[in-house]
Amino acid sequence: MTSRATVARVAAPAAFLLAVTVAVLLVRSGLRAGERPAGSSGAVVAPAGGQTVSVRAGDTLERIAARHGTSVAELLRLNPGIDPIGLRAGRRIRVK
Q1: Per the domain annotation, does 72 fall within a domain?
Q2: Which of the residues 35, 51, 90, 95 could staple to 68 if both were Cys, CB 3.0 to 4.6 A apart?
């Protein structure tokens, strides 16, 4: 086998893997386009006044509502823009 054929035999799979890696990174960044930047806290600013609580790991709006004697609808009203599916531990939300 010639030297050129050997280089092509090694370079082709390497080029393919590089292309696939770049494609995966581009798709992942496109899917994350709607997320907040990594440096942001992602916190929803609770309106002034009232009682706020910090979300615990594993909390749902249903658990928080039950713990504080309110409803999920009321939590959503008090915290406009909150993502009920994307609750993160440490986020402060208004409960009253």
Answers
A1: yes
A2: 95
- How many folded domains does the chain comprise? 2
Strand residues in 1-96 grouped as ranges (E): 52-54, 92-94
The pLDDT value recorded for residue 90 is 92
CATH code, domain carrying 72: 3.10.350.10
Cα gap 91→52, rounded to integer Å: 10
Residue 47 tokens, joined: 């309106």
Q: Which two tokens stand for residue 40?
A: 């942001």
Bridge partners of 54?
92
Q: Considering Cα of 68, then 53, then 73, then 48, what sign does the dihedral take?
A: positive
Give the residue from 65, 53, 40, 63 showing the smallest Cα distance to 90.
Answer: 53
Q: Is residue 47 part of a domain?
A: no
Query: What whole-number distance in Å separates Cα of residue 67 and Cα of residue 30?
Result: 38
pLDDT of residue 35: 54
Tell me if the pTM is above 0.70. Answer: no
